[in-house]
Structure formats: structure tokens, C-alpha cells
Protein 1
Amino acid sequence: MERYPIAKIIFDRRKNSSNTKEGTVELEIYFQRKRKWISTGIKILPKHWHPQKKVINRPDFQDLNLKIDHIENTVLNFIRKLMIENKPFTWSCFESMLENEKNENSFIEFVTERVKNRNDIVESTRKNHLKFLNALLDFNKIRNFHDLTKPNIFRYDEWLHGRKKYTQATIASYHKYMKIYVNEAIRKELIQFNPYDGIKIDRGKSSIRKFLTQEEISILEGTHLATASLDKVKDLFMFQCYTGLAYADLSKFDFNQVIVRNGKYVVHDVRKKTGEEFYIILLPKAIEILKKYDYKLPIITNQQYNLRLKIVADAAGLDKRLTSHMGRHTYATMCLNSGVKVEVLADMMGHADIKTTQIYAKLVNSTVENAYDILEERDSILQIINMVSDILKIIKLLLYHQKI
């Protein structure tokens, strides 16, 4: 009686494939009149299969054959090890090996563990990484390290584009997170090749930063609200408009840490989200708000804050949806409109990349362009008025000559 099984790669064992229907590539294990099949996860048309060469006549044939070889070699190496150690083959020990191999080679498990235990990211960033992980789980075609192939990256990208809830910016960020863990796997020698080599992902256009104009700020400041709690929400938002603090940094603001220098109140802190330093000077209106609350801001949860900002906007008659981050955008555009240089604003905002700050500069440029459009319109109106005036003069002159 044989002590060890025979393993071989087979194609379309159920004979279901046709010229237009794909068949499955599997690894067959035969031992003591019992067979077991292990799926490679690869489906191809009959014209793309060769009994000796395996996958042929496809642009991704090398990637697919590497995946097939990996699965086949894993099983053959296990059988050889048993032979060398003179140990018998059993289906139970084979199943255990497959389970261990699955865990050791699981890219999903690797990413899950890393996201869970990383201490170099803040919780908001961790939540974004978890969203990426959930999308990868839903895709369900990249589970193990040997699934990290260029064709699968393209399939993943197509799958993401097929989901209406994902914008191009979100899709690009999911690829960015994937690359982080792919590069970690390469450093740990869990994979040898980077499937993203030669693949360029469109980053998409950044969403337009929404902000309040000076007129809208004045309207909001002069709005009387029905309750003290809503008044506090308005004051928190106005404080953001005059400091540029994001909600996370607003919630940890401590006036005791403010430095007085040359009669000015200087805030030198580190952004909670990125760990980047920022420097701002508290403007008089920001100081007024602090005095109102004895220099301790009445912080509420971000969810409640944004919820009540909608009520504040309605009470003020604003047609813009107020959010906690809009205060930060308003501060940035006010600074640029007042002549603050982009490089200086980047330090004030705590931006890790000046390209982020330049997005606000584009907004200011648009404001300037709109102002010129208004001037051009006025200029056109003046030209028409002057033209009409000249015509009236000619008519008067003609009438005068007719009377003579």
C-alpha cells in the first residue's frame, strides 16, 4: 500500500468549460483511493490552458503560473518532508498543514494584525485603514500573499470603481493603504515582488474646500440663538474661524499652554491627527470667546457639534451646511486673503505637505478671478452707457439741424 499521495494540477475536472465559459484550475491529491481537490482560485478559458505549460496566451500568464506553482510546491514540499523524516501521510495531518499554511500566508490576517496593533497612527486614521480592510474583505479575491498579483490589483481597482459609494479620491486612498502593507510584506520577505510596480493610480480631484465669506461670518456673529447650548456651538465654530484649529485640536486646547510673547498669545502645539507642529497667534476675537468661558472652551462631541451646527446655520439663514472643518477652511482663506504667504500658512495650519495649503491658494485665486469678472461686467455696462450717451447726443444734434 502506498504511503504517500500523488499530487497533480488539473484543469476543468467537471468538464463545464467551453469557448466562452471558463474552467477552474485545481490541485488534485490522490491517496489510498481517495481524492481531494484544492482550488487555486484561477479560472480560464480552455484556449488558455496547456497540460505542460499550464496557463498560456494571456498577458498575466506568468503571474497565474507563479500562483499555481506556489500552491503545488507547498503540497509537494510537505510530502517530501514526510518522506525524509520517514513519517506516514494522513489526511488529518494534511488538513492541519493546509490550515497553518493558510494562516501563515494570509495577507488579510497580516493586514488585520498590523492595523490593530499599529501605534504610529491616530484612531481616526486607524478607522480609515479599517474601512480599506473591509473593502478588501468584500472584494474577496486578495486574501493570501500569493493573491498579490498585478491582474488582481487591476481587478480590485475595477471592483472599487463599480461601487457608487467610492469616489476616485477614496479609491486612491484605499490603494495607498494597500501599498503600505504590501511594502511591509516585502520588507519582511513575505513576498518578493511588488504588484504595484508599473501601475499608476489616479489620485482624483480633491473636494472643494467650503468656507464662509467675511459677510457670512458677520451674519453668523450677529445671530441670536434660542438656547445657551446653541450659542456655545456658535462660539466654538467662531473660535475655529479665528484660529484654524481642527476639531481634534480644538477639543484638547488648553489656554494654560499658551505662551505670551511681546504682548501676543502664541499657541505652539502638535496636531493630533498628523503629529505636525503648528504655530498660531490668538486674534482678539478668539480671546473674547475665551474670556466668555473663563478661558476653558465648552467642548462637546464631534457628532453633536456637527449636528447642532446645522441648526445654527438655519437660524443664521445661511445656505451653506456648516461643519466643524469649515471653520478651519474659513481661517485659511481669510489668512490668504489678508496677504499671509502660503509657506507661513502651512506652518500655521500644521500641514505636513504644502500642497495641502496650496489648495486654499487656488480657492483665493478663484475669488480674485470672480472679482475681476465683476469688474469686467461693470466695465461692459459703462461702455454700453457711454455708447448710449453718444447715440443720444447724435440724435439731439440731428433734431437740432432738422429744426433749422
Note: The first strand starts at residue 6 and ends at 11.
Protein 2
Amino acid sequence: LRTPVTVLRGHLEAMMDGVYPLDVPHVATAYDQTLHLARLVDDLRLLTQAEGRRLALHLQPVAPATLVDAAAARFAPLAEDASIALAQSAAPNLPTVTVDSDRMQQVLDNLLTNALRHTAPGGEIAVTVQPGPLGVQFIVANSGHIPAEQLAHIFDRFWRADEARVRDAGGSGLGLAITRQLIMLQHGTIRAEAGEGMTRFVIDLPAA
């Protein structure tokens, strides 16, 4: 929260002192920081509600393949723009899962956004759903390896990989913490694993 507040204050003070002109480009920079602050506050509120089990969910039976197909369709243009191959697959005859469709969309969007951020041009991302130990297993995988010491912290609040810090391409550091809480609220588990040049996020959900 401190960084956007500092940037916002600096731009406003510079315009008040006449250092910057009071024009649309400089006001737009300040406005962008207010949007960033709003996103951070919303993320913190959501995470706090989820951790306190106060987040209302609208649970209903959903076909797993529809979640994967919709997620891949949302991200196909972004992957194409980044020169990244995006593949999807769903095993046949999967049981339904009892989930909140909007929250599962948020989960998959968080994971795919993270995958895009950490996949180099020419790389690949795959989102799949298959039978799993609890009933149904979703996997979001991308080319690229995360060291074991980073995997241990990947779901921590505010934690970002060194690469994301250097590139300043990371988000608030709350996306994966929120993702874990949303999966736990839907009686599932999530883990991250790396190997063979790939990073995988594995979600296990019980069948309906």
C-alpha cells in the first residue's frame, strides 16, 4: 500500500507546487495509482474474509470441462499476443464438482495470469482436468522451473518470486494466497510442484 500512496502523493504535490503541469497525462498517472490502491484493498478484504470463513459461496454442481474450456477461451488472445502456446484438455466422463463457478473462474484466472507472467515467449501453458484422488483434478502447467526454496513460499501473503520483483511484473503478492483460500473453502486442496522444465499447480476437488 505504501508504494502507490507515495507515488500518488508525489504527483499531487508536484502538480500543486507547479513542478508538473495540471494536465491529463499527470492526472492520469495519479488516477492509475488510485485504481491500484483499490485493487490492493479489494484483494486484502477478500483474503481476510476467506481466511475468516466469512466469504459467502454460491455452490452448485458444475461440469469440470466447462470451467477449463471457459478459462482457456478467456486467455487464448493473451497467450497469442505473448507468443505462448495455450493448450487445454478434459478427460471424458468426469463427475461434476460442487463449486462456486465465479470463484473457480477467479482461481483459474489467477493461475493462468501467474503462468503467463512467468512463461517466456515461445513457451507453453496447459490447463487440464482429469480424475484425481478426491474425484477431480485440475492442473495449470507452464514451461519454466521454480526452485524448491521458492515453491515453499509460493502461497504466502505478499510473497513474489525474485524474477517478478526484478521485472516489476508481479502483482500484489496476494493472488496465490487468495487462490489457496478459495480452494480450501470449496473443500479442495492445491499444491505447486516443479520438474522436467515445468511448473504445475494441482487442484484436487471432491466429486459432487
Note: The first strand starts at residue 60 and ends at 62.
Protein 3
Amino acid sequence: MLDLMAIILTKNEARHIAACIRSVSWADQVLLSDSFSDDGTVEIARALGADVLQTPFENFAAQRNLSLEEARRRGARWVFFIDADERATPELAAEIRQAIQNTEVVGWWVPRYNYIMGHRMRGGGWYPDAQLRLMRPERARYDPTRHVHEIVLLDGAEGTLREHLIHYNYDTLRQFRAKQSRYLLFEARVLHERGIRAKPWSPLSMPAREFWRRYVQLQGYRDGWVGLLLCALMSWYTFQTYRLLRRLQHADRTAPPM
């Protein structure tokens, strides 16, 4: 039986994968849950001793649930999810090794430092940024209705670690904008499926609320001009999301009856 399996979800992560795998080399096994990368990710991982499971990508929640099933099949007692652009520090490794000896807790939140454009974020929703990543595979699953920003459903007690994951999520503003733009329609569809209805004024009121939440309530101002810029951009993407949600609602109203 494996005490601890580290799992990395990948799709063309050749740039990051070697450093990520090395940062979890203390795990008993490293498994790539790969969506048919074609940039050398798989070859690099195998050369570093990682196992590779390749499955078509449906959504993040489904991919993580498939990974949990594989961990259960292999007899892993604990699973630690880490993204390719994240790094586990030696201090976090030592704390995780201690935490998995706890027989009462079935899932652990891990705080995370986010680096955006070389700046370690201090507020705005990017810090503190705890992620539920360490879990007993037989006592955890991901909510299948949350395709992005996944939510873990735990059967048991949870705890929070002290040491941090390091997340190198956006090197440039262009990367930040490209990723947020890719999520727009997806986010609007999630809201639509959850039955959230946008009022005529929502594309204006919700962005204002989002800016206030991130910049003031979540202290985005602590990050200076970077915080101001990112909070403003998140407000803009909220505007775009609710504009798309209004279009989806209009399509429902004008669709011919079945």
C-alpha cells in the first residue's frame, strides 16, 4: 500500500513539469493524469520516474475524480494534488508527512502563495488562497456540477496546514488576460445551469460589486498598481460574464418549444 501519491493534472506542461515533479519527489509515487499532451510532457515525466495515466479531458472535476479512482485502485492511503505550475517546498513536504499520520482528519487545506507577473500577491482573493489538496481518496470526491473552481466533498473532518504551496500562475499580463478570456463562456454557462438569472442591470452592478469585493474587502490595494490592475480586470471579466449570461437567457426565451 502506498502512503502518499502525488497527482498532477497535465495538458502540454513541458515548461513546468520537471520542476513540479522534482518538488514532490518525496511522495511514494507521482502520477500524471494527462490529457494526451503532445509537447513532450509525458516523456519528461516518465524520464523522472512518474507514472502516466492518459484520459480524454472532460472537465477538471471529472479529471480529478478519475484520478481519485486510480489512486483507490492502486491502494494509496493519501493523495496530494498539485498543479504543474505549482511547487511544494521542503517545509510543506515535512508537514504533509506529519499530517498523514493523523487518523481523525481526512482532508487538509494547503495555503498558497500566488506569483503574478513576478509579484507575490498579498490580497485581492489571491492571498490567502488555501486549497483542499491533501485527502484520503476513499473519503473524497469532487462535485461533478462544478467543472472549474472545483469543490471537494469530504466525508469526515478537515484541517489546515501552515506551510505554503508556491503557484507561478501568470508570468505576463497577456497570459492572465488570455486565461480569463477562455473561462468567460464557461463561467456564464455554469451560472446559467445553476439557475442564476441576470437582471438588466446585472452587467453593471455585478462588476462594481466584484471590484469592491476584491480591492477593498479582500485588500487588493495591498498589492499596489498590480492589485489595482488585476482587480479592475476581474471586474471587466465579470461584466463580460454577465453579458454572456443575459444572452443565454435570451436564447432560452426565444427557443422554439419542444
Note: The mean pLDDT is 94.
